Amino acid sequence: MNAPLAYLQSRIATPPELAIVLGSGLGPFADEVENPLVIPYDEIPGWPRATAVGHAGKLIFGQVAGRQVAVMSGRAHLYEGHSIDKVVLGVRVLANLGARKFILTNAAGGIKLTYSRGALVLITDHINLQGTNPLIGPNDDSLGPRFPDMTFAYAPALRELALAQATKLMIPLHEGVYAALSGPSYETPAEIRYLRIVGADLVGMSTVPEAIALNHMGLQVLGISCVTNMAAGVTNERINHEEVLETGIEVRGRFMQLIKAVLPGL
Ligand code: HPA
Ligand 1 within 6 A of 186 CB? Predict the structure, then answer.
């Protein structure tokens, strides 16, 4: 973590207070950043490359809605073959640069039947089914405790703020539990029935490692999913990545409006 941290410290004039991780299809939020300093991931030593389609692979520093932000446009996923350490490296470095609150966004499959394609869902909690955890291994006591509490993994105060802003903007915002699997295959209908029974409302392949690493560091997380498709077997349709990206494009106006409205209160 030292090399990317030192490199970014040498590049930025003002440290970020807040960080936003953009999920599939949300890349254009990067254009909302004022006075942007854009740093492609491949210029940052030790930073994992974003290989997923729909993920740009750049860091943007600047201001949005009057706040000093860092935007990660593109993230590393386990399914790309990155180690779990690399998956959380970005958020750890941004935290070490100064970011104290994180907005994690993602594209997700909708399990809860009251959701529909395009719905925005505030993550209230998660279920880690990725079979790994970024904190496995010797604990780095300078980051946080060996056994971090996850009771309020998605900060209640930030959730209240997001719900209040969504109401004000008349943007429907659902709430739900996000289950993370490793991917990259989408789930089978049987897996989706299983996930529903164990209490998942959404399913995806990201966010959970980052939320764990940030809670470990004592930082606050706001998680928002875009339901880009109903999960396998909910409808008769097949799932494809093009649909996931298309829905992201349809929804991102609302999504960006909501994030911008939340930022001043963070
Ligand atoms: N499953 C897992 N991840 C996803 C999905 C899905 O249906 N849609 C978008 N990301």
Answer: yes
